[in-house]
User: Fold this.
Amino acid sequence: MTQRIVNDFSIVVGTANGSGSQTSNATILRALFKMGIPVSGKNLFPSNIQGLPTWYIIRASKDGFTARRDECEVVVAMNPNSFEKDLASVLPGGAFFYDDSIKKPITRDDVIVYAMPVKQIVRNDPAIPSNLRDMIANMVYVGVLAQMLGIDMAKIEAALSFAFKGKQKPIDLNLNIAKAAADWAKDNLEKKDPYYVEAMDKTEGLIMSDGNTAAAIGSIYGGVQFVGWYPITPATSLAEELNEFLPKLRKTEDGKDTYAVVQAEDELAAIGMCIGAGWAGLRSMTSTSGPGLSLMTEFVGLAYYAEIPIVIWDVTRIGPSTGLPTRTSQGDLNFAANMGHGDTDNIILLPGSVNECFEFGWRAFDVAERIQTPVIVLGDLDFGMNQWMTEPFKYPDTPMDRGKVLWEEDLKKLTEPWGRYLDKDGDGIPYRTFPGNRLPGSAYFTRGTGHDAYAKYTEDSAVWEANMDRLKRKFETAKEYLPKPIIENVAGAKEGVIAFGSTVPAVEEARYLLEKETGRKTNFLRMRSIPFSDEVKDFVQKQDRVFIVEMNRDGQLYEEMLIAMPELAAKLVSVAYSDGMPPAARRVVSEILAKEIK
Assistant:
């Protein structure tokens, strides 16, 4: 008898874009999570609305791994246009479920095949309105999988209750079909595949969230007051979540809003509004992706030179140009770090988990105001739009850092003239005032042209050079306020791995596989910010080699590190690739092994 495989496989559902499968897929994911099984969910969808194939990947991992796997053990085919591809993707010995109205030949004899009478089960329920049948039909595979894999139907009901916010009518319509499908499967299907789920306790105390929601809530907790944005995949949901939560969380006692969210006519207008709000003293932000970030370049240069704090969330997709708008990437790193013509430096925050998307949501404002500069939080589609397990979000445990602000009482105590761009403390960071301060000498003229320490226009070469040197000094000062890298050292390891963003879960699993299968131990540094801290250089110095894993063609983090520490170049090995897919551990392992010195 085939050995049971429990809580350690992937489920892939192939449907058509716009077919209403989102609720069904999320129901399976959340039901497994509620059973205590570590899971993650990834939606692979096309960048148009023409009904092209879409896939949803659910990974169950008893060991807690959450990265995508290339292997597909359980596949559900609901779309005739992807039927052949779905069938080909099943591992030998795997389970293939399909809608029996798809009249295409089964060309494999090494997989277990289960036909599902989807239309018949839906027609048998007279309570379903005819206009909803195609949508609710997706609940058939929910019920069949529940029966065949062992998913607790009570958890299915709880997941539906969450999805429909307790509204009983849609809960019942969907649940009844799932139960009917489960009953049909019990009576008509013989279990022949080895895949099962069983209750665990590995998700106790955890929640599920996507990174864009986490970032929105974190930004609200960080005191965001103004949001200027323009829709773009995959960043749109971040602004939408701000619109969802701000009305609930940010009102005065008499019901007045303490924020403004403006959907601008384009990205130029959005970033321009943010700069105006940041100049006026508001905690100001925008969200965008690669093409939008490109349009914002000139304004970001203005904010850098005029020293206006703003926060930009770049939820990265794959480029260049329009590229693959619904695929993930880390290809904006070089551009974001050097965004702006002339000599510019930008602070980059690199969240490596959904929880850090929340944390950097509020921390980015502290850094922006402390350093008085744009801060770019570089997320990506995989974190931003997909579902991940995470610790519950914690309210910031540090007071809000407004940086060097001179309020009216501060100005009264000054014994010498104040200069907006005067470096009094030697750290490159000047003091600022806000509009509305009525004391003489508190106002200044903000400009993007040459200015001296007192904000007066000048084209004096020496003054220009001194001011640019001060800005560079400020960039160095920023290091002490940025999130430090997280380092894991392993006894006996002589090699290191560096990663950031959504490559982190794949790298963590890849390191496990490398040690398990080849005996190679690796130390790990998770990059969380640029400019690089001293800990990064120290980590590289201690390794024989350091593999830098990232999702872009050219190895952009690798390039930034070469510039920052050229004397250590011989130790650095680029492990870069860009296929648009959420990173998988096996791919990381193969890429590292391919870098062996011949």
Notes: The chain is about 35% helix and 20% strand. Residues 209-390 form a domain with the Rossmann fold fold (CATH 3.40.50.970). The radius of gyration is 27 Å.
